[in-house]
């Protein structure tokens, strides 16, 4: 029983070390487009981490811009939820230089 606990602890320590040494996949952040049902005016841009808001004629809105990590994305999605805006889609888009290098 003690050996199993020791093995689990060693595995856990190894995983922690590997995770710390793994660089983030997008150190400068990722570009997202978030499509919602509803409109907000431009004064909300700061509240949404500086994302640009494009209002569509059909009553929908696309928020777009770079978010530094998944926590920032979840923060924006939570704010949209608190405003009772219906989430239609979330897309991570590749930047032009990423497309060219692949």
Could you give the topology of this structure?
Elements: H1 2-21, E1 30-37, E2 52-55, E3 60-67, H2 70-82, E4 86-93, H3 96-101
Antiparallel strand pairs: 1-3, 1-4, 2-3
Description:
This protein has 102 residues and is α+β, with helices and mostly antiparallel strands. It has one domain: Alpha-Beta Plaits, CATH 3.30.70. Helix content is 38%, strand content 27%. Strands 2-3-1-4 form a four-stranded antiparallel sheet, covered by helices on one side. The longest helix is centred in the first third of the chain and has 20 residues, at 2-21. The relative contact order is 0.19. Mean pLDDT is 77; it is low at 17-24.
CATH topology: Alpha-Beta Plaits
What is the mean predicted local confidence, pLDDT? Answer: 77
Count of alpha and pi helical runs: 3
CATH architecture classification name? 2-Layer Sandwich
Number of domains: 1
For the report, how would you describe the main beta sheet? 4 strands, antiparallel
Task: Tell me the Rg in angstroms.
Answer: 19 Å
Order of helices and strands: HEEEHEH
Kindly state the number of beta strands.
4
- Give the CA-CA distance, first to last residue: 49 Å
- The portion of residues forming beta strands comes to 25-35%
Q: Within the largest sheet, what's the order of strands?
A: 2-3-1-4
Silhouette: globular
Task: Write the CATH homologous superfamily.
Answer: YebC, transcriptional regulation domain
Report the helical percentage.
25-40%
CATH level 1 name: Alpha Beta
Return residue spans where pLDDT drops below 50 for at least 5 consecutive residues. Answer: 17-24
